[in-house]
Design a protein that fits this description.
It is a single chain. It contains 7 helices and 17 strands. It is of the alpha+beta class. The chain folds into 3 domains: 2-54, Structural Genomics Hypothetical 15.5 Kd Protein In mrcA-pckA Intergenic Region, Chain A (Roll); 62-119 and 219-237, Pseudouridine synthase I, catalytic domain, N-terminal subdomain (Alpha-Beta Plaits), CATH 3.30.70.580; 130-210, Alpha-Beta Plaits (2-Layer Sandwich), CATH 3.30.70. Strands 7, 8, 9, 10, 13, 14, 15, 16 and 17 form a 9-stranded mixed beta sheet that branches. The radius of gyration is 20 Å and the shape is elongated. It starts with a strand and ends in a 6-residue tail after the last helix.
Length: 243
């Protein structure tokens, strides 16, 4: 048995606090009865309705996917492009969705889950979950430009948070460079806009790590389940901080 608001959060209805607000304002029924009291516990056989819409209780599942290029990080796509759900190829019966997004032409590590509460926390800026990207950029960044990335650059009128930037290699003939950038922000096109701000447009981009997770052993287009210890570690990362 689990608390009702936790079950709702896991189902992706809302955050834990959002679920509590739905309960206390009378939007939730359990087995046909309106529930307004927090702390009510429910089991897998209880029928839960939110505004008369049933939610499905499923076992939580956590996947690490290596996203290839030309795949969208959504459950469905109105342009009929391949989605990350298509890559699962029916191997997962639970309804999962991406934690955040990677651009259509960006590759690398993407988490998928049906644990709405954890997904909300991982993408919330206050928890500062670090992601490392490796970018191939036009031109060769100078030490001063790398320093600018580290202290923050203007992105859509706002200064980006401090980042970790490292020049990995250069190709003097082609005038390109490979740079790693570690950030904890997740705004739209964040990494591309940061490199653009210092005059080095991104040619290719890959997310190599998400927190402590890596792509080791997972080929492009493949996925694996997180093990219980990895899930616990992720949850600890986003519950130790208050706010």
């Amino acid at each position: 048995m689990e608390r009702l608001q936790k079950v709702m959060a896991h189902a992706g209805v809302a955050s834990r606090r959002g679920a509590e607000a739905l309960i206390t304002s009378g939007h939730v029924k359990v087995n046909g009865e309106v529930v307004k009291t927090l702390g009510v516990k429910v089991g897998v056989h209880d029928r839960i309705l939110v505004d008369e819409t049933p939610i499905q209780q499923e076992m939580p599942i956590y996947l690490l996917l290596n996203k290839p290029r030309q795949v969208v990080s959504t459950v469905t796509d109105d342009k009929h492009r391949k989605t990350v759900i298509d890559l699962l190829d029916g191997a997962v019966s639970e309804r999962v969705y991406p934690v955040g997004r990677l651009d259509y032409d960006t590759t690398g590590l993407l988490l998928l889950t049906n644990d709405g509460e954890l997904a909300n926390r991982l993408t919330h800026p206050r928890y500062e979950v670090e992601k490392t990207y490796v970018a191939k950029v036009q031109g060769i960044p100078t030490n001063e430009q790398l320093k600018q990335l580290r202290v923050g650059v203007l992105v859509d009128g706002h200064k980006s948070a401090p980042a970790k930037a490292k020049l990995l290699s250069t190709n003097d003939d082609r005038k390109t460079a490979i740079v790693s950038l570690t950030i904890h922000e997740g705004k739209n096109h964040q990494v591309k806009k940061m490199f653009q701000a210092v005059g080095h447009p991104v040619m290719k981009l890959k997310r190599e790590t998400y927190a402590f997770l890596t792509l080791d052993g997972v080929s492009a287009g493949d996925f694996r389940q997180l093990n219980p210890e990895e899930v616990k570690q992720l949850k600890r990362m986003v519950t130790d901080k208050k706010g």
